[in-house]
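Saturday, quiet lab. Running sequence design on the C-alpha cells for the scaffold JK sent over.
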C-alpha cells in the first residue's frame, strides 16, 4: 500500500487542522493506520492509531481530547482532526500502515510509510 499525507499548514494556537492520509490498493481495510510526528531535534513519536475497521483507536496522552482519528475505507482515507492546537504540536506528521490488527505505538510495527506533512502552530 502507498500512502500520501496532506493537510498540514500554519495555524494559530487554538486553531484546527485536518490531516488526511490517502492510500492506494483495494485492501485498505486490512491495514491499521497510525499517525506519528517529528519535531525539529526530536525523535519521531506516536500520535494516534486506528484499526482496520475503525473500531479501535488509541492516542498519545498529550493529544487525547484534542485529536480524533477516523477512517473512510470506501475512500481509502484516514483523517486526523486536530483541534485546540498548541505550539508544541508543531512537527512533521507522518501516516503509516500495518497489517497488524491494531497498529500500536511502536514505529517498527508499521511496514508502510507516507511522506510527511508539516504542521506549524504559532503562539
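Result came back. Writing it out in full:
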Amino acid at each position: 500500500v502507498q500512502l500520501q499525507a496532506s493537510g498540514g499548514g500554519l495555524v494559530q494556537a487554538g486553531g484546527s487542522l485536518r490531516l488526511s492520509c490517502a492510500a492506494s490498493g483495494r485492501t485498505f481495510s486490512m491495514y491499521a493506520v497510525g499517525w506519528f510526528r517529528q519535531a525539529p531535534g526530536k525523535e519521531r513519536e506516536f500520535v494516534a492509531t486506528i484499526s482496520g475497521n475503525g473500531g479501535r483507536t488509541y492516542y498519545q496522552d498529550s493529544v487525547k481530547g484534542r485529536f480524533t482519528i477516523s477512517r473512510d475505507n470506501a475512500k481509502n482515507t484516514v483523517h486526523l482532526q486536530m483541534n485546540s492546537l498548541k505550539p508544541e504540536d508543531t512537527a512533521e506528521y507522518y501516516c503509516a500502515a500495518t497489517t497488524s490488527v491494531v497498529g500500536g505505538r511502536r514505529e517498527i510495527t508499521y511496514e508502510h510509510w507516507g511522506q510527511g506533512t508539516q504542521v506549524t502552530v504559532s503562539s
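Notes for JK: Residues 90 and 120 are 5 Å apart (CA to CA). The two ends are 37 Å apart (CA to CA). Ask whether to fix the surface positions before the next round.
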